[in-house]
Amino acid sequence: MPEYQDDFERVRILESRYNVMRERLLLINQNMIDEYKRLNDELKEMNEDVKDLKKELFEIKEALNKIIYELQFFARKDNLLVLEKYINMWNPLHFVTEEDVLKIIKEKRGNKNRRRRK
Predict the structure, then answer these.
(1) Which of 116, 97, 93 is nearest to 105 (CA)?
(2) DSSP string, 94-113
(3) Integer angstrom CA distances of residue 13 from 5, 6, 24
(4) For residues 114 and 111, what is the distance between their CA atoms, to the nearest angstrom?
(5) Which pLDDT band holds residue 1 (cuts at 50, 70, 90)?
(6) Model confidence pLDDT, tens digit, residues 56-91
(7) Is 21 helix (H, G, I), strand (E, B) or coil?
């Protein structure tokens, strides 16, 4: 009978170890499932972020293309320098208005009339 008790004791120990291993395996499986869900959620968020970034990048490219298109209609520096030379040559600040011309004419006539009277 003592042999059987040793065998029963060994079986109980083995069953106990088996139960502990089974519990550990269940815990590991649950942790793996939780981690999988978390990683899957993070991956979905990253995919959404990538989509948003691609959309924003596309919009930036479109805006840059519009700016580049509009830039071709801007005057170039050499064209502005030519215009500046012509404006300086004409010097529009010395132009007179119609009123100024009429005033000058009246003054000249007045001066001629005064000379004739003398």
Answers:
(1) 97
(2) G---HHHHHHHHHHHHHHHH
(3) 12, 10, 16
(4) 5
(5) low
(6) 999 999 999 999 999 999 989 999 999 888 888 887
(7) helix
- 3-state DSSP call for residue 57? helix
* pLDDT tens-digit readout, 24-51: 999 999 999 999 999 999 999 999 999 9
Dihedral sign for Cα atoms in the order 36, 37, 38, 41: positive
Amino acid 92: pLDDT: 66
Amino acid identity at 92 = P
Among positive and negative, which fits the CA dihedral 31, 33, 34, 38? positive
The model's pLDDT over 83-105, given as tens digits with 9 standing for 90+, comes to 888 888 887 677 778 888 888 89
Considering only CA atoms, give the Rg of the chain: 49
Q: Which structure tokens are listed for 68?
A: 């580049």
Q: How confident is the prediction for the chain on average, in pLDDT?
A: 89
Domain coordinates in residue numbering, the chain: 1-74, 75-118
